[in-house]
């Protein structure tokens, strides 16, 4: 992957040097400035939501949120322990509220709790990864914050489209996982029988 990015950067730099060499330095500096500015904005957004998550945990609201998402985690992860399902519930809640940065540590913790030391990921681990990557969001807070900081007049217009697209992507991902699991079982039977 690093090689691909290196090739892309070299090709881009070479193209700008051939097309408009006098603007190459100014374009690179402008890009670096934009990257630093975006990083600072993202740090502020993540710090805010990680702080909110910490306050929720200190106030015991994480238990309440976990209770609200418990039916989902019980449905999808029946074989996992109660503690694992609680961490999964908190992860799902953080994703649902658009706190992707806050959900990441919980997702890593849940994966570690599900890991049984096998060579490959279990079915539940893959299912959790799909739910985590698609992250059904009611409030895409990070994107709303970025749109607001960029000067959008209606930063929250993306709530409904985001909810629909994340639900569809989650259903497609889970459907593909189920089909893959069924095909895997079918091929195993053919091999053994």
Note down, in words, how this protein is organized.
This protein is mainly alpha-helical. 80% of the residues lie in helices and 0% in strands. It contains eight helices and no strands. It has helices spanning 2-19, 24-59, 61-76, 82-96, 100-114, 123-134, 141-149, 159-192. It is globular. The protein starts with a helix and ends with a helix. 20% of the residues are buried. The mean pLDDT is 83.
Low-confidence sequence ranges = none
Query: Count of DSSP E strands?
Result: 0
Report the major sheet: none
Please give the count of helices. Answer: 8
Report the oligomer: single chain
**Radius of gyration computed on alpha carbons:** 21 Å
State the helical fraction.
Answer: over 70%
What fraction of the residues are assigned to beta strands by DSSP?
Answer: under 5%
Secondary-structure element order, as H and E?
HHHHHHHH
Structural class: mainly alpha
Whole-number mean pLDDT:
83
Distance between the termini: 41 Å
Shape: globular
């Amino acid at each position: 992957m690093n090689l691909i990015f290196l090739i892309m950067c070299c090709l881009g730099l070479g193209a700008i040097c051939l097309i408009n060499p006098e603007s190459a330095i100014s374009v690179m500096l402008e890009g670096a400035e934009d990257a630093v500015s975006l990083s600072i904005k993202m740090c502020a957004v993540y710090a805010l939501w990680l702080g909110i998550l910490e306050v929720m945990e200190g106030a015991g609201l994480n238990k309440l949120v976990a209770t609200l998402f418990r039916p989902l985690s019980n449905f999808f992860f029946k074989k996992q322990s109660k503690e694992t399902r609680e961490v999964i519930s908190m992860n799902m809640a953080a994703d649902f509220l658009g706190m992707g940065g806050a959900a990441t540590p919980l997702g890593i913790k849940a994966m570690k709790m599900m890991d049984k030391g096998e060579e490959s990921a279990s079915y539940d681990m893959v299912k959790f990864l799909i739910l985590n990557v698609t992250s059904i969001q009611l409030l895409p807070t990070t994107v709303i914050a970025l749109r607001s900081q960029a000067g959008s007049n209606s930063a929250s217009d993306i709530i409904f489209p985001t909810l629909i697209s994340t639900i569809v992507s989650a259903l497609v991902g889970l459907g593909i996982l189920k089909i893959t699991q069924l095909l895997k079982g079918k091929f195993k039977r053919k091999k053994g029988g």
